[in-house]
Amino acid sequence: MFKLLAIDPIAFELGPISVAWYGIIIVTGMILAIHLTTNEAVKRGISEDFIIDTAFWTLPIGIIGARLYYVIFELEYYLDNPMKIFAIWEGGIAIYGGIIAGFLTFYYRSQKDNVPILLLTDVVVPYLLLAQSIGRWGNFINQEAHGAEVSRQFLENLMLPEFIIEQMNIGGAYYHPTFLYESLWSLIGVIVILLIRNRKHLLLRAEATALYLIWYGLGRFFIEGMRTDSLYIGSLRVSQIVSILFI
After folding, report:
1. What average pLDDT does the segment 196-210 reach?
2. Predicted confidence (pLDDT) at residue 204 exceeds the cutoff of 70
3. Were 179 and a residue from 46, 119, 139, 149 both cysteine, which residue would form a disulfide, CB within 3.0 to 4.6 Å?
């Protein structure tokens, strides 16, 4: 029987520059989210220029926030390997750090341009969740953000395609594809928020934002409990603490 090989994390090389699948997937999610957000924002009276300008600032600040969040909770490692702080193509960005940094940027921009912050977040959250769903496939390529060891039969019983099963073969052992659980949970959340939000009078201002926080926080709390690479404060998983605050 033909056996699939693990996917190379490097998509292609341009001379001395290696372009990682992780970066391509993250950027794809961001571009799609910006496009969909812009279309929705214009319908709701927010200018396209405002969304593009806000995205211009939010994306790099969000990435920096996501990386700093991760580095802070792995500080001992990065103090010993300071140059690794900049190697984000290897993974190690924490979505909660990006969300917090992104929200602060949104708040500043909304105050500066007199755009209601909760109107802005209501427009953004379903497409942010879509970008999160897409971004988890970067973790898949890097063989990270997985759960505990399981049998191959367990994965086959989930009726997963062969390429996912083989990518979950890390060092000769198979692992829970928690990236997939979160990706699917986020995708379902996108559909739920859009269906409810787009039916008039079903959601008031800020309720789409609240639904996002509850939906993602609830799913992440349980999925985080399955992961083997969690960031900790003492014996507590950081992402579970933040998830509770979201809910």
Report:
1. 76
2. no
3. 139
The confidence band for 2, taking pLDDT boundaries of 50, 70 and 90, is very low
**Residue 1: per-residue pLDDT:** 46
Alpha-carbon span 62 to 185, nearest angstrom: 22
Q: How far is CA 214 from CA 147, 155, 207, 211, 247, in A?
A: 23, 29, 10, 5, 5
**Angle of CA points 40, 45, 49, to nearest 5°:** 80
CB contact burial 15-52 (16+ within 10 A = b; e otherwise): eeeeebbbeebbeebbeebbebbbebbeeeebeeebbe
Q: Element (H or E) spanning 241, and its range?
A: helix 238-246
pTM: 0.89
Query: What are the φ and ψ backbone dihedral angles of 93, each rounded to 5 degrees?
Result: -120, 135
Q: How far apart are CA 178 and CA 186, in angstroms?
A: 12
Tell me the domain boundaries of the chain.
10-246
Residue 37 predicted with pLDDT over 50: yes
